[in-house]
UniProtKB/TrEMBL annotation:
SUPFAM superfamilies: (Trans)glycosidases, Glycosyl hydrolase domain
Stored CDD domains: AmyAc_SI_OligoGlu_DGase (cd11333)
Hydrolase listed as a keyword: yes
Listed SMART domains: Aamy
Gene Ontology process terms (BP): maltose catabolic process; sucrose catabolic process
Organism annotation: Parathielavia appendiculata
Residue stretches making up the Glycosyl hydrolase family 13 catalytic domain: 17-394
Similarity comment text for this entry: Belongs to the glycosyl hydrolase 13 family.
Matches recorded under Pfam families: Alpha-amylase (PF00128)
GO molecular function: alpha-amylase activity; glucan 1,4-alpha-maltotriohydrolase activity; oligo-1,6-glucosidase activity; sucrose alpha-glucosidase activity
Protein name (record): Glycoside hydrolase family 13 protein
Length: 541
């Protein structure tokens, strides 16, 4: 069998992540919803999207924007009903678009029936479904990702329970077989039977916490609570658990999984999850790059602002630079809503009151208390949030230059503020501008990626000049003569780069419209790139 035949369906796809609260409101309540998503399928199809991933749309008190699920088998009512999801599954499949959901099963909401029963008494049959401990002191010094302690004393049961995220998100006990079976049934088979094609798996490597809880080493002496992921990330039974999940559920549906894999910088460890001979997950998000900063732990700043420049002069060029890079890198391409129009981070002038995310708000409160509201510290906190905070990527999708960016008709406006620059950065305007817009550029890159999939999606990657912090130069090789060279300038100054030694590289696409013309006069392999400039060359194609 040739490798092309053996390839799973999800290798070549372009997947688009939708944040349901902020994508499109269909009923004027200020919050995005499932019918809103349905109304934009053709937009996604036109962009070249093959798979849509919807962030949690399940029933939830929304303490952590749906990552606190109170019923896996119901939809959060303001988003719609299970019927709406069925309509969406049907409509997507009619257009050849697949759908994946978020699988959030490290924890539930404290409002889930399982937790309510579990805490009701020490001899409740579900008492062991969550991670608890009966000592009167917090069992360990573990810190929650959302600031403060990871243990909460529960008056009702007289014991502590573990919550690695908010206290309203108790951690499930994966040691208990009945719990695992219930998860497989309620959170997975329920949706797979309805035709969903797989899951993005939330914090997949922290389920196995062992049974012996120890204090974490003190790395931040200012606080009692300390990060403890060395004890629970990639725990001793995690691979066994994932093999079971495949055998019991996933293998029966040819379902795809993409696991969120924090705290795992070592590629050898990553391979233990995705290696072909012992597959546990189809693929993973390896977040070392995006989480290496103080403050936010699971941050999602907008890529233009985070990795390039969102200044008025360069934000369009920067958004195209990132498109060039992502469109030519090996692997399955994941795209976040609004990236296709180059949406940028929250303006630096917005105060903390405009932020909604529990992670951002708790971080601010903790630092305010810790520093007696020291203005310099708080300014630093705000600067961090403006770069890293998850609110940045949660602002409403900018559809038009009209009221509330065309996201909602709600008189009082959307649930969270629209970006000040929606008049300049929006879909309607970029559709009008056509090819020269960021949206036009993304469409072209996605088309090019699909046309040259053997090279761009599957080709072998080679890095060049890897010590250079301002440029990113890489090549792709397909078996045979086909080659791609990608030269990217990640700085606001001109940079010189050297093209790899390929026979007759031909300029294909660049983020400065005139690059093709300029190329004609250039001899040899040296290229001078302007600020934030990127180019893609193909050879032998
Ligand atoms: C990790 C997710 O990326 C984040 O958005 C969420 O808040 C936590 N898991 C809790 O589920």
């Amino acid at each position: 069998m040739s490798s092309a035949v053996a390839r799973p369906w999800w290798k070549d796809v372009v997947c688009y992540q939708i944040y349901p609260a902020s994508f499109k409101d269909s009923n004027g309540d200020g919050l995005g919803d499932i019918p809103g998503i349905l109304s934009r399928i053709d937009y996604l199809k036109d962009l070249g999207i093959d798979v849509v991933w919807i962030s949690p749309m399940f029933d939830s008190p929304q303490v952590d924007m749906g990552y606190d699920i109170s019923d896996y088998e119901r939809v959060y009512t303001p988003y719609g009903l299970v019927n709406d999801m069925e309509d969406l599954i049907y409509a997507r499949h009619q257009r050849g678009i697949k759908l994946i959901l978020d699988l959030v099963v490290n924890h539930t909401s404290d409002q889930h029936a399982w937790f309510k029963e579990s805490r009701s008494s020490k001899d409740n049959p579900r008492r062991d479904w969550y991670a608890e401990d009966g000592t009167r002191l917090p069992p360990t010094n573990w810190r929650s990702y959302f600031s403060g302690q990871a243990w909460e004393y529960d008056e009702q049961s007289g014991e502590y329970y573990l919550h690695l995220f908010a206290k309203e998100q108790p951690d499930l006990n994966w040691e208990n077989e009945e719990t695992r079976k219930a998860i497989y049934h309620s959170a997975m088979r329920f949706w797979l039977d309805k035709g969903v094609d797989g899951f993005r798996v939330d914090v997949v490597n922290i389920y196995s916490k062992g049974v012996e809880f120890k204090d974490a080493p003190i790395v931040d002496p200012r606080f009692y609570e300390q990060p403890a992921w060395c004890y629970y990330a990639n725990g001793s039974r995690i691979h066994e658990i994932l093999r079971e999940m495949n055998a019991e559920v996933l293998n029966h549906y040819d379902a795809v999984t993409v696991g969120e894999l924090p705290h795992t910088p070592d590629p050898k460890k990553v391979l233990e999850y995705v290696g072909a001979s012992d597959k546990q997950l189809s693929m993973v998000f390896q977040s070392t790059l995006s989480t290496s900063a103080r403050g936010a732990s699971t941050n999602q700043g907008r890529s233009v602002s985070r990795f390039a420049s969102d200044s008025p002069a360069y934000r369009t060029t920067s958004a195209k630079l990132l498109s060039l890079m992502l469109g030519s890198l090996t692997g399955t391409l994941f795209h976040y809503q609004g990236q296709e129009i180059g949406m940028i981070n929250i303006p630096p002038t917005w105060p903390i009151d405009f932020y909604r995310d529990i992670e951002s708000v708790n971080f601010y409160k903790t630092m305010a208390a810790q520093t007696q509201k020291d203005p310099a510290e708080l300014e630093y906190v705000m600067r961090s949030l403006q770069i890293l905070g998850r609110d940045n990527a949660r602002l409403p999708m900018q559809w038009t230059g009209g009221k509330h960016a065309g996201f909602t008709d709600c008189e009082t406006g959307p649930w969270t503020r629209v970006h000040d620059l929606y008049g300049e950065i929006n879909v309607e305007r970029q559709v009008r501008e056509g090819k020269g817009s960021v949206l036009g550029f993304w469409k072209r890159m996605i088309r090019l990626r699909k046309e040259h999939a053997e090279l761009l999606v599957h080709g072998a990657y080679e890095g060049f000049e890897i010590e250079d912090e301002k440029t990113f130069v890489f090549g792709k090789r397909e078996s045979g003569e086909k080659r791609a060279a990608v030269v990217l300038n990640f700085s606001g100054e001109e940079q010189e780069v050297e093209l790899p030694v390929y026979e007759g590289p031909v300029f294909q696409v660049g983020n400065y419209g005139d690059a093709a013309e300029k190329e004609k006069s250039i001899e040899g392999r040296i290229r001078r790139l302007r600020p934030w400039e990127g180019r893609l060359y193909l050879a032998g194609c």
